[in-house]
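Contributing new complexes? Match this layout with nickel (II) ion.
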Amino acid sequence: MLIDSHAHIQLENFDNDREAMLTRAQKAGVEYIIAIGFDLESSVSAISLAEQYDFVYATVGMHPHDAKLLDDGIIDKFRDLAQHPKVVALGEMGLDYYRNLSPRSIQRKAFEAQLRLAQELDIPIIVHDRETHEDIMKILRRYVGKIEKRGVLHCFSGDIKMAKEAIDLGFYISIAGPVTYPKSLSLQRVAREVPLDSLLLETDCPWLAPQFRRGKRNEPAYITAIAEKIATLRGVSVTNIADATTTNVKNLFGI
Ligand code: NI
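Output block (do not edit by hand):
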């Protein structure tokens, strides 16, 4: 069985066929899906899907794109929402210097506010990092020892050196569809060399479809293509990758 550890199945992209999409995921061997919030509204809708479906869990958080919207009122709401029995993590949170939709200093502030909340709630975190490797690691290092449950660097895009540093800090490395793209050599090296007990899989759907559907809408069923690619890269069976990554998600999120 597989787990899609990062999916935005609450988005309107799935409004027309959500039921069928979830059935396809289950037929493909997906045991659980983690619906990831990225602002207040999407966090609330992730929880309502988790209430509707046993095999869906949820997270609450503010993406760095919308960091400028995060204020004390929203932090209070996240604190309340995080008490829900099906909320397993805080995030996605982090930094994005590629699109810079919120000013960098505001992104860092919002990231740290959510890190402090995770510390207070003793809950794992989901970290978004796009072209911010240095700042992300600098900030995470400051919270090591404070955040016991640690978390995951989602849609990992750093090199093997950064992966090893993050693992040393207690974080998991989550690999998404870009590992299937022919030119993703650095990421393929990470997928090959990262210790199996630190690896998670995700689709980040509706974005980042694997090579066979590249540019089209992504969905949790396609996680199999990511597992197959990593199995090939490592010269092991798909079952081996599926079992290990599923155990890792369960350990991290306490499912
Ligand atoms: Ni995401």
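Reviewers usually confirm one structural detail per submission. For this one: DSSP finds nine helices and eight strands in the chain.
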